[in-house]
Every structure is written in structure tokens, then in C-alpha cells.
Amino acid sequence: MRRKSFINPRDGRVAVAVWASGWIESIDVRPLSDVEYRRRLKNQILPQWGSVPVGDISPTAVAAWEKALRGRISKNYADGVVGIFRTMMDDAVSEGLRRDNPVAARKSGRRGRFQSQRPEKKIIATPPQALLVARNALEMRGLNEYAIVLTSAYTGLRIGELAAVHRDQLALKDEKHGPRIHAIQQSQYVGGVFTEIQPKYDSGRGLIIPQFLAEVLQELVDSRPSEWVFTAPKGGRMIRGGDWYAETWRPIVHGRAPRGVVRGARARTGIRPVLGVEGMVPHGLRHSHKVWLDEGGHPRVAVAARMGHVLQGVEGVYSHVTLPMELRIADQLQGLWEDSLRPVLDRREYGPFPEFTSPRCKRSPKNLPQAV
Fold first, then answer.
1. Which CATH architecture has domain 11-94?
2. In this structure, how many other beta carbons lie within 10 angstroms of the beta carbon of residue 303?
3. Vertex 294, ends 288 and 299: CA angle to 5°?
4. What's the pLDDT at 361?
5. pTM of the entire structure?
6. Phi, psi at residue 50, to the nearest 5°?
């Protein structure tokens, strides 16, 4: 009564599963996010809370559940699950199903052991290391994978944005404004079908690229008639799933043991690992690109625009990207490329071949993608 708000107790008796079924249909998110939300509801939230009335969920019970959750899944995944549950309960409060959010972050001070809030350190590559990864990709998969690695490293585009670039979105002749690649959509693979949607944060943009990369991309599109610039290793739409990480990305970074003829399989050459980037994920090339731009001392507004971000506050309102800024970025990137080609005699660049281990039997792929 003191808060002058009334919550009908009967409203709070709605089970979480019932509330979730209507809630998930009401939110407006991208197709891949929708799939992930439903998966996390089904696998993590509803098994614990599905039969519990919305009004009966207590902060203490949520804290115990979250602790158990973080003990069995990764931090990032747990953060995502808890974040979805928190949003659900925020909307339940708005609908009058309960007065407060039991998943809201505590503001009364820390409880339990100290946990560092330092962000996880990302593994990034220098331009010479990016070149070595690209050369491994060229040896393993050919020009397409070579171009993907270099384009990711020298543009900072996300994998989904690279997968959606069409041939007519390349402007590779320098007509006083520099060669460019236009990333105006991203590709997502949802329900066995490829879809093209707006890039993350609606950040469609045309990026100036260094001259060497324009030449690589010209060679790539001249080598085949594909509508898309970047394709799967064996042709078709580019998709980056578990098989690609295991069979392409990991070997070009961590190396692959040479193998003779085994059980009728053909012999294969070995791939030496690139030293200093052990554990780097493909998104690490985007992080690397940002570091290179920061080291070049470029204006923050030009860096943010290139990364598909927007500066906040007064700086964002009054800062603008100009052609001279972009041309200086292209010049710096071209210089980094040329420097990376120079041999270094006093530093090992590749490590020794990994030891050979017999491969496990692998199931045939299911739900092959359909191009749309």
C-alpha cells in the first residue's frame, strides 16, 4: 500500500513456462538471436523454472541456480542465459505479474568470493602473423581461404559480413577515392537456410582497402563465376560451423601433422603452426585490425566507423569521417602489408609439425544448407 501499487496474487501464479511461451513470441530480434533465445529457454531456463509460478521466484533461489549454472557451462554462455531470464522477469514486472525482478543485479555490495571483472584477454595477431595464417590457408584450401583471412585482418569485417558480400559490392579500381568493399548486409544460417539481414547495429558501410587487398580480391573474383565473393572451401555459400573450425581454422593456426596413406585415405602434407597466436579465434583478426588502427594513431571517429560502431556523446555528434582520414588508413595498412613481406632472420615464425593422432570416426553431415 505504501508503494501505491497492487499486484493481484492470482496473476503471479502463472507458471514460468506459460509466461515464456507468450514472451518469446513478443520479442523482436534477428533470426539467429531468436533461435538462440529459444535454445537457451529450452535447455537452461525452463528445466529449472518452467513449473514455478512467476510470483514465487526469489532472489536467493535465482542466485543458487546461477551459481550451479556457472559451474557447468562457460562464463559467456551463462551470462547470456541469465541475461535472457533477467529480461523475461523485467517484462513480467511490466505486465504486473510481480512487483520486482528477482534476477536484477545486486546493489547492496558484494557477497561471496571476489571475482575479477577484468575482461578476458583476446589473442591477436601482428601483420606478419596474419600473413603466416593466410599462407597456411592458401596451402590448405586455396585462394578463397587466403583471401578470407587477409580481408578479415585488413578490414575488420565480421565473418557474417564477409559471407554476404556479392561481386557487385566490390569497387576495386582506385578512382581517387580508393578501392572499396561494401558490407551492406550479413549472412546467417537459420533452420537450414541462408538469409541475409542488416549487419549488426545496422552498420552497413563501404570500407577503403589497401591496394594489395584489392589485387587479391580481383584475382579471386576472376578465378570463378560465383555470385558471392567468399564461398565455402569446396564452393557454395560460405558457412562457418564446427566442421570449419575443426578442419580449416584450427589447422591453419595450430598446424597439422603430415600423414601418409592411412586406410586408403590419401597422404597429406603437414602444416606448421604459427607461433604466438595459439588459441586465436577467427574474430581475433577483427580485434587485430582494431589494434593496428590504434597503433596508427587514426582519429577515433574513423576507427569506430570502420569497425561498424558509433561514437557516443558530444564526440559522436561533432566528429565526422573524411576522405583524407580514410586514405591515411589505407596507406598505413598497405605499409603494414609490405613490411610483413620482409623476411626476419632472427625470429622463428613457424613451429614444428604437431604429432600425428589417428582421427575419430565422424558422422555424415545432416541438414545441408539450402541457398536462397
1. Orthogonal Bundle (1.10)
2. 22
3. 135
4. 54
5. 0.74
6. -55, -40
